[in-house]
């Protein structure tokens, strides 16, 4: 069975290169390409129920940039798997993509092996991250800057979380699936889904990777 992918990037040569890379990996198929966020949304709306399994979205594009497109897609299609594409110097915009609801991110110059690893993980589990990923996302924001700009807000948000929601967030920092987290917490997956949606709403976060970044940033979890 193919993993169907939508590819969005404003540079035609980049799209062509990524498409060739993906279609040389067994089991991957590019459904369509788009040159910006608006084109992507228009194409997905034409598909109705036959959605791609994964959407690759460039961060910086004309007409509609990545974060805006991801926000719209996450609102319309909550279960859509979205992976941010970027150059490796664009960490602040990648953070914005994660906050908007991207499930993972890939650098455009990643090896074919890394593309396959990340996309299969996202397809199978709905997320991908590693300690290296999280460290990279936080590396360009100094501890002092985070403290000055975010500490007070994080404390206010933390107070809104229940003890079980905090426990759930910490477990999200593992590689466990939501079903495995439910087993460890001794609750149903439906209850865990409730913890997830409540945490998303209280923290204005839209993806599991965003929860991990929040947990690391607040000291709830240490890499």
CATH class of the largest domain: Alpha Beta
What is the fold-level CATH name, i.e. the topology of the largest domain? Rossmann fold
From the helix content, strand content and strand pairing, which structural class follows?
alpha/beta
Number of strands: 5
Taken as a percent bin, the fraction of beta residues is 5-15%
Roughly how many Å apart are the termini? 36 Å
Radius of gyration: 17 Å
Low-confidence stretches: none
CATH homologous superfamily descriptor of the largest domain: Response regulator
- The helix content, as a percent range, equals 55-70%
Q: Shape from CA axes?
A: globular
Spell the H/E element sequence: EHEHEHEHEHHHHHHH
Count of folded domains: 2
Spatial ordering of strands, largest sheet: 2-1-3-4-5
Overall pLDDT score = 84
Please identify, by name, the CATH architecture of the largest domain.
3-Layer(aba) Sandwich
- Number of helix segments? 11
Major pleated sheet: 5 strands, parallel
Describe the structure.
The chain has 223 residues and is an alpha/beta fold. It has two domains: 3-128, Response regulator (Rossmann fold), CATH 3.40.50; 143-218, Response regulator (Rossmann fold). Helix content is 58%, strand content 13%. The protein is built from eleven helices and five strands, in the order βαβαβαβαβααααααα. It has helices at residues 12-23, 37-47, 66-76, 91-100, 112-125, 131-139, 143-160, 163-172, 178-185, 189-203, 208-218; strands spanning 3-8, 28-34, 54-58, 81-86, 104-107. The chain has a five-stranded parallel β-sheet with strand order 2-1-3-4-5, with helices on both faces. Strand 1 (3-8), helix 1 and strand 2 (28-34) form a beta-alpha-beta unit. The protein starts with a strand and ends in a 5-residue tail after the last helix. The mean pLDDT is 84.
């Amino acid at each position: 069975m193919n993993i169907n992918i939508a590819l969005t990037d404003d540079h035609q040569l980049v799209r062509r290169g990524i498409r060739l890379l993906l279609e040389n990996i067994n089991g991957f198929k590019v459904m369509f390409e788009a040159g910006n966020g608006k084109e992507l949304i228009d194409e997905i709306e034409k598909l109705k129920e036959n959605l791609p399994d994964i959407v690759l979205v460039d961060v910086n594009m004309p007409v509609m940039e990545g974060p805006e497109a991801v926000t719209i897609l996450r609102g319309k299609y909550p279960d859509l798997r979205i992976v941010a594409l970027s150059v490796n110097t664009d960490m602040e915009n990648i953070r914005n993509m994660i906050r908007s609801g991207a499930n993972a991110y890939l650098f455009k110059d990643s090896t074919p092996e890394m593309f396959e690893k990340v996309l299969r993980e996202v397809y199978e589990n709905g997320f991908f991250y590693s300690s290296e990923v999280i460290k990279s996302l936080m590396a360009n924001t100094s501890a002092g800057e985070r403290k000055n700009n975010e500490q007070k807000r994080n404390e206010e948000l933390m107070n809104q979380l229940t003890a079980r929601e905090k426990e759930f967030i910490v477990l999200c920092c593992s590689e466990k699936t939501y079903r495995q987290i439910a087993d460890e917490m001794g609750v149903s997956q439906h209850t865990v889904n409730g913890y997830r949606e409540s945490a998303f709403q209280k923290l204005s976060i839209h993806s599991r990777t965003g929860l991990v970044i929040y947990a690391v940033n607040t000291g709830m979890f240490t890499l």
